Fold:
Amino acid sequence: MKIKTGFLILFCGVLSIGQTFSYQPTEEEQQELTTLKSQLREAISGDDIALWNLYAQARDLEIGIQAPEKLNYKLQHLRDYLLTILDDKKELLKRDAKDKKSEFLALYQGSGVASAEPLSENCIGRYPTLDAMSFAYDFPTSLSIAIWYRETSCGFYLPKNGNGPFQIISKQYGNGSLDRALFEQTIKDFLEFSKKKIERYNSKNPETPIRLGYDSINYKDLYKFAGLYNGLSGGTVYGEIGPANPKYFLEKVPGDRENGKKNGLFLQVLKVLEWEVK
Structure:
């Protein structure tokens, strides 16, 4: 991202020079902005993580600095331009995947979806951010939310153990209150951590790789991922892996675990999918 973020650094550095005045854009300045947008589109082509990062920078710079109207005007246009690209790409993929999600839900309607705990406002209240970042990293939004739910009940706070909302034991975030910037950092860390787990498994199991993406989800790979994230049954990363504690994945599913206290990872994924396709 160093080259790509350089566009924004140079952009802001140049525009910060000058006096504060009521800004009326000239045709030349409008053309400069059009040229910059074109350069940015080329730089982020095919790189949705870079697209998200640049959008977040433009958004935070526009909100966070006391700057001339000229700078804020251009930052606002840049922010909106990047957000439009992000939303258009995401919504196109989401529309294309809606039928697949509905089919997956129909396949597992007997798994206890109707009797599962309802989605809390906490879990869907931050949906736009989790959805945009999951798209950028090509990861199922429903799984991102389900992990957050299983680990901290979708809590918007920093747990006392310091491992954050997604309980990544290799990270330390402190404890107490949580703001947007830190929450987005914890999502980024979760997504990168999860993708590395999957990449490691796939490198050792090229014949049976985990295939989970923003627009693709399946039971077998969800079960494998639960093992990678929560602890492996048998302690091995080879073959048909699963969680050491099946309750993490299957809690409240009809059968031996239907009297659980909260939705297992699988049911929570289904509940989010159900909400998404409505």
